[in-house]
Amino acid sequence: MPETGCRDTPILKQRGQHEVFCGLTGIIWLHRKMQDAFFLVVGSRTCAHLLQSAAGVMIFAEPRFGTAILEETDLAGLKDAQDELERVVTDLLARRSDIRQLFLVGSCPSEVIKLDLGRAAEKLSARHAPKVRVLNYSGSGIETTFTEGEDACLAAMVPVLPNTDQRQLMLVGALPDVVEDQALDLLAKLGIENVSVLPARTLDSGIAVGPNTVFALTQPFLGGTHAALERRGARHIPAPFPFGEEGTTAWLWAVAREFGVEQACFDAVTDAPRARARHAVAKAASTLSGKSIFFFPDSQLEIPLARFLTRECGMHAIEVSAPFIHKGIVGPDLDLLAEGPTIAEGQDVDLQLERCRASRPDLTVCGLGLANPLEAEGLATKWAIELVFSPVHFYEQAGDLAGLFSRPLRRRDMLKLEAAE
């Protein structure tokens, strides 16, 4: 533990022009996670092009998402958009009998014309129950960041979960299947039983919630889901997030303490994977040690990642910015982040670019829209969105996570050598 962490550090709050990526992109990993779900975006052709481009879906593939296109007549109010939407959903469900959960996803166009997707979801859910459950959430990029799409989706699921009085642990946050399996295996070896996951892979998983449910977040951007679960009576287990060896160990130990796991049992289960994680991180840390890093606000992973990079990889954080800072969620990571960096919430992108250029960090973590211009100015960058798409949680991915940050620096060094030759 540092003598003084950053939990009580004054937060620089700025509001102005900001650079964000659309929340609809959360569908790209959610549709792979929930195997019986379909995400129907109610939006424009631009929304459809974004999803197809970002997901890299081939034209002849039939994924578990699509777009109900709002035409000019819908936007002008010349047609009843609710009737049109019900027709599209009926046709979709008739063609895709495998759909058990249907999400109506709001977009910028549907929000601008005030299309009531909540009412549409209620009517359609009543019509198609019990075979299909229809929910809605907003993935609009207006005043939001791209990871809020997942948060809104999971928060929409919580109110309709069945009640339970069983003592149980719920893991909350979408992880790649292989990473989720690793986490469940570690918990099973610790003797923790009755573990559920939100989002579950299928509707029939039996996931429920109640006053004897405790939940551990695996993603730091789930503020709305956190609040929704607490409204259902569940209790949060605060912990650093499972990035790197230290973060994973602290996260697991917080859960283990909650369920009365003895220290000797905990050490027996975690000693070997901890050693592997430390060894894997050390390979990348040799490139990262002593280097400076600057975080623009983008994914809401910034604070846990800064903790990992400074404590386990030897980096120096100049500024750590996040779109939102929920101390009930990232407080444990702030406790471990040594005092020194500027902690910022929100963004005035022009002012932040000035601070970044003045500090000349060795590595800048930012969104796609800023990366190329900063690279052209001679700054090495890492795309924030890649950290959400890649498997980076828990022990076995610790080395891969460190490698995501070391590769841009190694690439920069190689380019310098080639230029010198």
How would you sum up this structure, described in words?
With 421 residues, the protein is an alpha/beta fold. It contains 17 helices and 14 strands. Strand 10 (292-295), helix 12 (302-312) and strand 11 form a beta-alpha-beta unit. Helix 7 (148-157) packs parallel to helix 9, helix 10 (244-258) runs antiparallel to helix 11 (263-288) and helix 11 runs parallel beside helix 17 (398-420). The N and C termini lie far apart (45 Å). InterPro entries: LIPOR_BchN/ChlN (IPR050293), Nase/OxRdtase_comp1 (IPR000510), Protochl_reductN (IPR005970). It is an enzyme of class 1 (oxidoreductase). Pfam families: Oxidored_nitro (PF00148).
